[in-house]
Amino acid sequence: MLRVLHVLDHSLPLHSGYTFRTRAIMKAQQATGVDVRGITGIRQHQGGAATTRPGTAADRDEVDGLVFHRTPGEVSGPAGLREWREIAALARAIEQVCGEWRPDVLHAHSPALCGMAALRAGARLCLPVVYEIRAFWEDAAVGNGTGRAGSLRYRLTRGLENRVIAGADAIVTICAGLRDDLVARGVAPGRITLSPNGVDLSLFGAVAAPDPALAARLGLSAGDGTASGPVIGFIGSFYDYEGLDVLIDAMPGLIARQPGARLLLVGGGPMDRALRSQAAASPVADAIHFTGRVPHAEVERWYALMDIMAYPRKASRLTDLVTPLKPLEAMAQGKIVAASAVGGHAELIADGVNGVLFPPDSPAACASALAELAARRDDWDRLRDQGREHVRSHHDWSRNVSRYQAVYQTVLRAGNRQELPDAA
Question: Which domains are present in the chain?
Fold first, then answer.
């Protein structure tokens, strides 16, 4: 049986898009007969990135039937030195796990700190390294408001990424935008495999029925439990690049055309306080509702209250290159998707086919798109069906996992190592 060790920034039980993708990959690989484990860096028990709960510093953790090893300890020092210490600590932990468990492949996932640690350990242990890029983290830092484009830190992060890309045996990216950027940097297209974001339909494909009592408590329905108008929804992290301020500014224009419309924002993050203040000052403040963060296990209850999921991401290098996961989850839940026409959304959504696209950074364009979509109720079933079919055909992890098997076969053959059996 082939063994694959996934090298990660953070994992379950922390909650983020990063951890949910990891879980889906590892579960799908388990189902094909691959023996998988994960190992996380020091940041796991320092709170991780974009998380909703504290981590654990346990040496080994089992979550949802998956085994994760933890890198113990802490690192300190000035920026730059601190990151090199993180890499060294993770590399040592990888070597320790490999001495006990003996994987055949190291599959490192961005950021480049994980990739560099895997390269160090792989070189010492003669193990092939697959490096998966989910985003360029220098661009993610800009999008999160923790970095500045073109700064020294930005350039150093990009340089480290390039070193890992050059040293890895194979490269995986989650979307065409990232792949095309790598090719423009000089990476041979044949070294890059595309493994798009996906949904585990065995867990996320059931559509829940709306809870009338919950809808009434939130002010989303009339007193008799019937809907008062279309509910526009967003579930996720409140980062500036998500454009939720644009969505709030769009609400007066939407309500002028659809008086019963309501906006339900589920989640939290760095922009939470500013968004709540903006909503309170809106002339349609009574139509905008915040829930705070909700347990991931209950997220279907909140999807069930929403008619149209809105993703008004702002135009930026990050949003043009990277495809998000949330629109796919919404399609799997049978929700209609309206999104800004940034590059990452355009890879997932064909305007008028499985969703609607509108110009980014424009409250007026957002309001107009939502109002027109709300008025076309006779078209909703078609959009829902097309969205679900798009996920089933192109983004179901039970199908997409075979892409990794082909990559593993290639790197193992190149090193004359054990080959992966064909997928079940």
Answer: 3-198+396-414 (3.40.50.2000), 203-394 (3.40.50.2000)
